[in-house]
Amino acid sequence: DVKVTQSSRYLVKRTGEKVFLECVQDMDHENMFWYRQDPGLGLRLIYFSYDVKMKEKGDIPEGYSVSREKKERFSLILESASTNQTSMYLCASSRPGGDWGGYTFGSGTRLTVV
Amino acid sequence: DQQVKQNSPSLSVQEGRISILNCDYTNSMFDYFLWYKKYPAEGPTFLISISSIKDKNEDGRFTVFLNKSAKHLSLHIVPSQPGDSAVYFCAARKDSGYSTLTFGKGTMLLVSP
């Protein structure tokens, strides 16, 4: 069964900590994405990557960075966690273009910053 | 600027009846539209999609209709079942290269027995 795996379901971190959220996919997809989901705001794109070592900013990149050293792994980094980064974080992957089946999402990481 | 809009935050339907979820978009460059279903504490799962060159796509109880001139799409669920209770997100793709999706804010569907 193909899937996207996020390493943690729940995380609690302190303000100012550096936080790493890990995502691994086993579908050999080129594209990987990080979204956050907040009530009343839907899913908002933070960063995405279309190839190893390549990254592009999404709609809300401030306070975040990413790393993609291997095709299957895409990490989201909160450089200095703040309470307004408390959210559900969703990783997704897809192949590019054409007749397309959309994203496959991971189960999400619920991050609480205290 | 919200490019994908789901104007109904919630919808309540009785089991066996039709559920109709609506979505409007503003960007005429969108070429592909999708619906995702999300249960609490889980990631969204793909439900159904439609290319901009079509006006209807059907998969079992789920049908998506696209009206390009009105920049409107809708998801019909017939018959609705209590297990369909979830948040439904409409999403649109702008290009086939990076394939980034823009999501609406979601509609929470509650199907009561």
Largest sheet of chain A: 7 strands, mixed
CA gyration radius of chain A, whole angstroms: 13 Å
Shape type of chain A: globular
Helix content of chain A: under 10%
User: How much strand of chain B?
Assistant: over 45%
Mean pLDDT value of chain A: 92
**How many beta strands in the DSSP annotation of chain B?**
11
The SSE string of chain B, one letter per element, is EEEEEEEEEEE
| Main sheet characteristics of chain B | 6 strands, mixed
Derived from helix and strand composition plus strand pairing, the structural class of chain B reads mainly beta
Cα Rg of chain B: 13 Å
Annotation field: number of helices of chain A: 0
The secondary structure category of chain A is mainly beta
What's the oligomerization state? heterodimer
Unreliable residue runs of chain B: none
Given the C-alpha coordinates, what overall shape of chain B results? globular
The N- to C-terminal Cα distance of chain B equals: 38 Å
- N-end to C-end Cα span of chain A: 36 Å
Number of helices of chain B: 0
Largest interface: A-B, 33 and 27 residues
Strand percentage of chain A lies at over 45%
Q: What does this entry show, briefly?
A:
Helices cover 0% and strands 53% of the residues of chain A. Chain A has 114 residues and is an all-beta fold.
For the structure shown, list the relevant keywords.
heterodimer; A: 114 residues; mainly beta; four-stranded antiparallel beta sheet; B: 113 residues; six-stranded mixed beta sheet; five-stranded antiparallel beta sheet
Q: What does the model show?
A:
Helices cover 0% and strands 53% of the residues of chain A. In chain A, 36% of the residues are buried. Chain A contains no helices and eleven strands. Chain B has 113 residues and is an all-beta fold. Chain B has strands spanning 4-5, 10-14, 19-25, 32-38, 45-51, 56-59, 62-67, 72-77, 86-93, 101-103, 107-112. In chain B, strands 2, 4, 5, 9, 10 and 11 form a six-stranded mixed β-sheet that branches. A five-stranded antiparallel β-sheet of chain B has the order 1-3-8-7-6, with no helix packed on it. Chain B is globular, with a radius of gyration of 13 Å. The mean pLDDT of chain B is 93. The interface between A and B is medium-sized, with 33 and 27 residues.
